[in-house]
Every structure is written in C-alpha cells, then in structure tokens.
C-alpha cells in the first residue's frame, strides 16, 4: 500500500491531498492572493523552499493549482476551480481553530515575519493620504534583526521591508510581539492595548487615526473562543 489511507471514503481521499503537513497553510496563502513563490514563502517562513516546491507540484498534479510563466521569468500560481472550492473548508478550519483549540499560544508560535505579512495585506489604505506613508514597527521584546519592520504605504499598495528604506518615518508603533499577536487575533482589543500603554503609536494625529481606522484584524478576530466548562 502507498502513502494513502487505503480507503475509498471521500474524506480519506481528500485528506491524502489537503491534510498533508504544510498543505493547508499553502492553500491559505493562495486563497489570500499570493501568486509568486517568494510571496508564498513569506506566508510560510518556517517552511523550506524545497518543501514548498514539492507541495506546489503536488497541488498542481492533483488539479488544485495551475502554474504559468510570469513576465520576466519565474512562475505564477493560480487556484483552479477545484482549489477555489476549498475556500470554505480552509475558512471553516480557521474558525474551528479559533473557537475550539484550547492550547495557549506559546513563544514558539509567535512569528513577527508572518504577523507583519498578514497585517500588511489587511490594511485599508483609503483611510490614509495619497502620499507615501512610512510606518516603523518595533517589537520591543525581540532582538535584532527581528525587532524592526517597516510598512511602506503608497499608491494603494502596502509593502513590508525588513531593512530601513532610508526615508522619513511618519508613524512609530512600539509593542511587544505577544501583545500585537493577541490584538491581531482579536483576543486583546486594540483600544485596550493602547489605553494600557502596551501598544504605543506616535505621529501626526490625522495619520494615526487613518492608520488605526484602516487596520483590519485577522479574519478570525471576531470568533469568540469557547471556554472550558467548570
């Protein structure tokens, strides 16, 4: 018998493809709009490039992903109808995880690279002026080189930089990684983190308000966690 479950059940056949380690997270990134290999890698920073290539090839072979040549070289990846049909499955998995998984988030789970990548693609930039805005995040509990991140917001697009881009900073955000993760997940309200001083944002008032108004949290932030019964 091969690597499958050896069952005709559709749940088993689907799990052989979709439940392979890392595959749900690769699907999450594709469903979030990542199309290029390097963008996909930024959504799964702890996954090796070779393993990501293997998973993408498997998804392509199974008809969930289509690969095409990109302008300037490389490839782009697009979900097929079969891949897009997994959207409610992945969303339901995230909803279940937020509501029912009782294990607390540990230090090993925290990842500023992933957090900033998630955060940058959820920003509503129409709340900010049309000119370029540079936001520097400082994770106060992290050592270099994962202490500082820069968000460049310009022309309706947001980019994450791991190095200082070298022009004037408009907003400064200082927060610990656990607190910002809790805010992102909806476990700590943003206004509470600001009121207690755990999250400090400095800069012109109009820019502060525009950035905070446009900061959309995780799609699962509104899911209430089920508490263990006494």
Automatic annotation (TrEMBL):
InterPro entries: ArsR-like_HTH (IPR011991), HTH_HxlR (IPR002577), SCP2_sterol-bd_dom_sf (IPR036527), WH-like_DNA-bd_sf (IPR036388), WH_DNA-bd_sf (IPR036390). One of its GO terms (biological process) is regulation of DNA-templated transcription. CDD domains: HTH_ARSR. The keyword Magnesium does not apply. Keywords: DNA-binding, Transcription, Transcription regulation. PROSITE patterns: HTH_HXLR. Signal peptide: none annotated. Residues 9-105 form the HTH hxlR-type domain. The keyword Signal does not apply. GO terms for molecular function: DNA binding. This is Transcriptional regulator, HxlR family. It comes from Halomonas beimenensis.
């Amino acid at each position: 018998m091969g690597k499958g479950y050896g069952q005709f059940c559709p749940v088993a056949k689907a799990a052989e493809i979709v439940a392979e380690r890392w595959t749900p997270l690769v699907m999450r990134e594709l469903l979030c709009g990542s199309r290029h290999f390097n963008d996909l890698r930024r959504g799964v920073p702890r996954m090796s490039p070779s393993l990501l290539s293997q998973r993408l090839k498997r998804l392509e072979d199974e008809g969930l992903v289509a690969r095409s040549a990109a302008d300037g070289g490389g490839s782009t990846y697009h979900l097929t109808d079969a891949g897009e049909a997994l959207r409610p499955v992945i969303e339901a998995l995230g909803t279940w995880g937020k509501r029912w998984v009782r294990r607390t988030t540990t230090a090993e789970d925290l990842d500023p690279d992933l957090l900033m990548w998630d955060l940058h693609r959820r920003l509503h930039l129409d709340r900010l002026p049309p000119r370029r805005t540079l936001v520097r995040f400082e994770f106060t509990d992290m050592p270099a080189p994962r202490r500082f991140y820069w968000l460049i917001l310009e022309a309706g697009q947001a980019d994450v930089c791991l190095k200082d881009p070298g022009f004037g900073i408009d907003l400064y955000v200082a927060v610990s990684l656990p607190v910002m993760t809790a805010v992102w997940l909806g476990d700590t309200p943003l206004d509470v983190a600001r009121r207690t001083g755990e999250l400090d944002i400095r800069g012109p008032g109009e820019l502060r308000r525009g950035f905070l108004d446009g900061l959309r949290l995780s799609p699962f932030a509104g899911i209430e966690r089920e508490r263990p019964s006494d």
